[in-house]
Amino acid sequence: MSNDFLYVRRASRAVGLYVGVASALIIAAGVGLLVLVILLTSRREGAEHGPGVGGDHSGDDFVVDIDKVLPAVILLGVVGVLLLAVVAWLAARRSVQPLSDALRLQQDFVADASHELRTPLTTLTSRIQVLQRRHARGEPIEDNLAALRRDATMMNDVLNDLLISAEQNTPAAAGPALVSVAAEAAAASLQALADQASVTLIVDADQDVAVRVPPVTLMRAIVALVDNAVQHSPEDGIVRITVRSAESFALIRVADEGGGISGIAVDRVFDRFVRSADSGRRRGFGLGLSLVRDIAVRAGGSIEVEATSDRGTTFLVRLPAA
After folding, report:
1. Geometric angle at alpha carbon 64, from 61 and 67, rounded to 5°
2. Is the pTM of this model over 0.70?
3. Fewer CB within 10 Å, N or C, the chain?
4. Residues with Cβ < 8 Å from 183, sequence gap 6 or more?
């Protein structure tokens, strides 16, 4: 039985218990107040033959003043209905919360998967075009086939990592992962796109910097940053990936030579579906930087725009060093 199904069942039982207890308390309080009102508004009258000897009131009757009780009963009834309506509204809201959470997670996963697989698919398309041209000219194609196989493997790893991330209660296997290896692999996977855009990729990474993040997750974050930089770089531009260490953190910088962030506040570029006025060569959906932030935060790190101007933008990712 899936965790989501068990979560919905537990939430349903909790809502049922909540409604039952709240309704019982409201009804009990209403009955108690009604009895109190009746006692306070009733008066004692003697029996038909008058009071007994020595002031004995055993024959007295209690008479309820309807003119006083009826408004109180109506008021208590209206208050009770309103309270039960509030309880029903709260219960309904709480009962649909698990479904709302599940729908949000599903929508986020579909959007994230679509975005994360978009770059590898574009790279595959570029490599296939190169392969077709080289095959038509009778040139060697073994290196292109190896690259295609590597890209297909990366797509499978990315999809598995997304599925693990979607299962919030399932911890991913932590590294340590060498940041230099992930940076080189990210640059290699995006080389075809960079060549197509006439952009040069330069990796300057210290070799001994490691972080406690799954390697495929780290590579996903760097790929997203480099892909964003390539899309916003001019022709003959340079994208630099720099890896350094400072105290107990690994510092990953990705710098481009584009036109900078414009049209939105700098701190909003990491929000989902928020895009700069300059959307780059390929239409973006405002998800890549948001996914990088999620990865960094889950790892105990952060991401920020270190600098942006009409001469380019630099993103800085801090991750705890292994």
Report:
1. 155
2. no
3. N
4. 203, 205, 222, 241, 243, 252
